[in-house]
Write a structure and sequence with these properties.
68% helix, 2 strands, globular, 7 helices, mainly alpha, 126 residues
Length: 126
């Protein structure tokens, strides 16, 4: 048995597409309600981030091929069966191995840079 709870292909998928827990939660909410169209304001209340940040997350998920958009609303519809299958597997993995998935997302180099930049900006504005 492997010590690694995240299969290599899902590890690569997370590293390529998922930048935050909020983004993952947004994706999984839309996935669980594929016929429902969501606006950023509505979804922001479910994932506990601002509507502006939610709009950014939705735009990114749309650009990456996970969502379709119409009139400012978004629905889950992957551009390929391969993407949809990975999202399904990621949803199952996240519910079974929340901590390892969360740790992987938080360990991404881009997240570390964003965190450091936030302190740099704060220091510059004082």
């Amino acid at each position: 048995m492997r010590d690694q709870p995240i299969p290599d292909d899902l590890r690569e998928f997370i590293l390529q597409y998922i930048d935050s827990i909020s983004q993952l939660e947004a994706l999984l909410i839309l996935r669980s309600n594929p016929s429902t169209a969501w606006r950023a304001q509505e979804l922001s209340q479910r994932i506990y981030v601002t509507a502006q940040r939610t709009a950014e997350l939705l735009a990114r998920l749309h650009a990456d091929g996970f969502l379709v958009t119409e009139d400012g609303s978004y629905r889950f519809q992957c551009r390929s069966e391969e993407l949809r299958e990975k999202v399904e597997r990621l949803a199952a993995l996240y519910s079974a191995s929340l901590i390892p998935v969360t740790n992987l997302i938080h360990s991404k180099p881009s997240r570390i840079r964003e965190f450091a930049d936030a302190f740099k900006l704060r220091k510059d504005s004082e």
